[in-house]
Design a protein that fits this description.
By secondary structure, the protein is of the alpha+beta class. The chain has 2 helices and 2 strands. The chain has a domain of 36 residues. The chain is 35% helix and 13% strand. A two-stranded antiparallel sheet has the order 1-2.
């Protein structure tokens, strides 16, 4: 068996498959911890505002989601 072998496992969550390399593997509770509930939204901004947002994200090395989350949190504190 080489290091690139992949195993397929059934998750504890119904209908999900887990893909694992031979080293390590899927463990319940492993991975990034949740910071909240994810909900998909659509946001319409002008091209100029998208450019400003992207420049902000690049400057501060954050994702769009992180930048928008910070703006919302700051507004509702």
């Amino acid at each position: 068996m080489n290091d690139n072998t992949i195993k397929v496992g059934v998750s504890n969550k119904e209908g999900q498959l887990g893909f694992m390399f031979t080293k390590g593997g899927h463990r319940e509770g492993a991975g990034r911890k949740s910071i909240g509930v994810t909900k998909k939204v659509s946001l319409t901004l002008t091209d100029e505002m998208w450019e400003r947002l992207d420049m902000h994200c690049e400057k501060h090395r954050v994702s769009r989601s992180e930048a928008l989350r910070r703006l919302v949190e700051a507004n509702f504190k």
